[in-house]
C-alpha cells in the first residue's frame, strides 16, 4: 500500500518569527492571515493553486528554443545551411583579404622568377621567395575554406601584374627586393587588422579568434625575420657579401 506523506507548511508571524511547520505541497499555495477571535489569535487561510509551468530546474528547453532557429533555416537551394550570425560585411572583408594574399603571392612568385634567372643566379633568394609565394597562397586558400565553412561565398577578384625587374642602382636587387617584401608583410598585417576590426564591429567572436590564432602571430614573426634580412643586406652592401647572404638562405632552406 502506498502512503501519501502529509503536507507541511512553515510560516512566520508579524515579528518575522518562524511559527513551525504545518504542511508542504508540490504545488504552490497562497496565504492570508488576520488577527481575531478570543485572545487576538492569528488565523491563517490557505488557498492552494497549481502553477501552469512548475519549476523543474530546467534551464534549457531545446524543442521550444529551437523554433526560432528552425524558422531561419533557408529553403532556397542557393542559400547556405551552415550560415549563422555571419554578416555580409564580414563576408565581403574576407574576400578582400583573399585577394590581398593572392596579390602578395604573385609578387613573391615574380621575385622567385627573377632571382632564378641564369644571369642573376641567387638560388637562396629564389628559393626563399618561392616558398614565400606558396605560403601566401596557402593563406588565401585557408581563408577560402573558412569562407565556405561559415556559409559565405568565395568571390575571387583581379590580381595586378607584378614587377619583373628588381635591380636597383643604389641598393642592388637583393636589398631592394627584401625591402619590398618587408613592406608587403607590413601591409598584409595592416589588412588583417582591418579584417579583425570588421569582425569585432559585427560581434563575430569566431572570426576574430580565427584571425588571431591563424594569422596575426605568424605575421608578426614574418615581419621580424624579414626585418633581420634587410638589416643584414644593408650591412653587406651590393658586393660579394650578397653571395654569402644568398648561401645562408640556401642553407636555411635546406636545414
Can you characterise this structure?
The protein is mostly helical and 255 residues long. It folds into 2 domains: 8-48, no CATH class; 88-254, Ferritin. It has 6 helices and 4 strands. It has helices spanning 62-72, 88-115, 123-149, 173-201, 205-236, 240-254, and strands spanning 8-12, 18-23, 29-36, 41-48. α2 (88-115) runs antiparallel to α4 (173-201) and α3 (123-149) crosses α6 (240-254).
| Main sheet specs | 2 strands, antiparallel
Report the helical percentage: 55-70%
Coarse shape: elongated
Distance between the termini: 84 Å
| Poorly predicted spans | 22-28
SSE pattern: EEEEHHHHHH
Question: What is the number of independent domains?
Answer: 2
Number of strands: 4
**Largest beta sheet: what is the strand line-up?**
1-2
List keywords for this structure.
mainly alpha, Ferritin, 2 domains, about 55% helix, elongated, Ferritin-like_diiron, chloroplast
Quick rundown:
The protein is 56% helix and 11% strand. By secondary structure, it is mostly helical.
Helices and strands in order, then pairings?
Blueprint: E1 8-12, E2 18-23, E3 29-36, E4 41-48, H1 62-72, H2 88-115, H3 123-149, H4 173-201, H5 205-236, H6 240-254
Antiparallel strand pairs: 1-2, 3-4
Helix pairs in contact: 2-3, 2-4, 3-6, 4-5
